[in-house]
Please model this.
Amino acid sequence: MVGLKIVLALIAGAIGVSFLFLAWVWIMTAIFGLVRALLRAPFSHEARADLAALRFLRHPFFIFGPRAPTAKMRDLALRVAQERGVALPLTTLRSFYRTRRFLNEHSRDWLPPRGW
Model:
């Protein structure tokens, strides 16, 4: 009976330590992400948008990454950037929201009006 209590206490301690470690990693990632965004904010519209959306608080161990843009969005963004002569960073093409923001800024006359 005493052996079982010791084993359960060790398992509970291991679970507690692992949660504390994950919380520590999340806090450190958020602090570094915040500092990085604050340092980039005066020079980057994307960094200011990330600060406003609190994207630095995303947990680094989430299974699902950022939502990728659709193939049509990606093709349209590349076409708009080429025809308008606008620089299109690769980070924009990795994020649905950044691609949407790019298209909203640079291709208002190309996009169909929203129905809502």
